[in-house]
Design brief:
The chain is 44% helix and 21% strand. It is an alpha/beta fold. Strand 1, helix 1 and strand 2 form a beta-alpha-beta unit. The radius of gyration is 19 Å and the shape is globular.
Amino acid sequence: MIATDFLGNSAQAAHYGYTLAQQLKADVVLCNAIALQTEAPQTGFVPWPAEQYDLMMDDSDKELENLKLELYKIKTPNTYIPHISYAAEIGSVTQVINDVAREYNADIIISGGHSASLVSELVTGNHNKWLIDAVLRPLIIVPAGFDATSIKRITIAADLKNLDQDTSSLLQVVALAKLLGAEIQLTYIDLHTHGGTRNQENFYQQLNELVQKSGYDKISVSVTRADNVEDGLDALCSKGQAQLLAMSHHPHGFWDSIVHGSHTKKMIKHITIPLMVIPAGR
């Protein structure tokens, strides 16, 4: 499923999602949420009158139809041509996207990452932050300026504090990698405060146990040392070997500091490859 608001990076994200669907031999549903005015932060605006929503629905349907036709122009010889449907609903972004994802049994949700600014934050809020906290399916956030490309390597970061969740997240990435014929790099961010060769050996042992549980033979393991989580993630993304970075999101754990507050905004703002967020326990 491709979530779109027709702004900024949304067209490029839709192109990415459609190209991924071609590789996966999957069909596509485009989704546009017509957000209630009360969903935005306190900006002094008043709710739209009821008749305005009818006009907004008509405009949304036209934009979705135009986007559908544009995506059908993306043709690669000997590749699957996904069927495209679309849905526009009135409601909060997270509610609409989750409802449409359930209705169409979506496996993955694609969303465009927008350049953050104070004005856009005040007027529209941070939809990707809300999605990360509430989405029921794996969410791929596509950074602005990223061109659609074949996924040959996926990096997934484990936190090694909840091995059951690490296993569940890895298995979801394995399912995607198998369809793409992609390699997986399973890594752990070792903060310098942990230190010690013995700890590193323990990290590698735990990573290798996860690999054995996955049953996938295209997985390599690594431990990345960094002063903080953000630097570790940047190092992983800047090497240029992976086309997708995956991590799980759960309320209490190693990645909690990433997906809440300023870390999330910083990573989504400057990450150079798509970020796949796997909801834990949902």
